[in-house]
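Entry 12.
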Amino acid sequence: MKIFLPFLIFFTLIACKNDPKKEEIDTSAPLSNQEEILDSLRVSDRNLDAQQQTLNIKRQELLEKKDSKVEMEKLLISKSFLKEGDWYTLDFKYPYLNQKIKPQFENFNEYISKYYLDAKGVEKQILEEKRLCDSLGIPKQNEKRMVDYKIYNLNNRLISVLFYKENHYTGAAHAAYTFDCLNFDLERAVFMNYEDFFNNGSEEELRDILNTLLKTKINSGEMYYDCWAISADDFFDAKNNFVVNDDVVEFYFDDCVICPSYTGTYSIQIPLEMLMPVLRKYKKNPLIG
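Predicted 3D structure (tokens):
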């Protein structure tokens, strides 16, 4: 069974395309006619104060999301890592599982240690990485990478971990966010990926479901101006970036993938009943039965 791509990939930031074209949702046309939708990224005429206000709301919604840390007190060991260099600060928070409960949880802890706490690798990538949107490209000076996590527990059978990284770039108007998710089967002590939950070849069908929900949000107005449809390439890159929380599966996307950093959302929640046509039907799938 495939394991998630090494967590180190999380620290390779995906820059917004230089070509300012995105797959914009035409709210007057059905999403099934994506090929007829003109690609364009509308430049917002809203002032910086309004953008900062919506950015703050968007950020607070992420930080204040409730998770299962309290109810997982016996299972979960929260740890932290801080390193300050001359031109960067790394401030990471991450979970371990209590191996006294089940020795096989060592699989989870070793994975975190090997791919997550690689400070030298992160430092190298900070030097080499491209900037996300809203960055002025000014040489790096005391840049910050702050990582925290949310964790969810589904019936003591599956844990879903959302890692969110707050990237402070020199010269950027505000922080940009990137995400990575892990799903771990507590009973078998193994990681699970997209194909363990969803049918093989179901990516386009699931992308249509996500875009339908996103279109509804865009039509509602509010904070979703300047957002666009999820492209096939972007969904393929992010298809393992989801967490399971009760009867909802929530997919996360980096800044500038579905919305600019100053508006919209980082994630789209899909009710479980909408996913029934694409769920893989077998006993090891925690979303079935």
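Annotation: The two ends are 22 Å apart (CA to CA). The CA atoms of residues 194 and 239 lie 7 Å apart.
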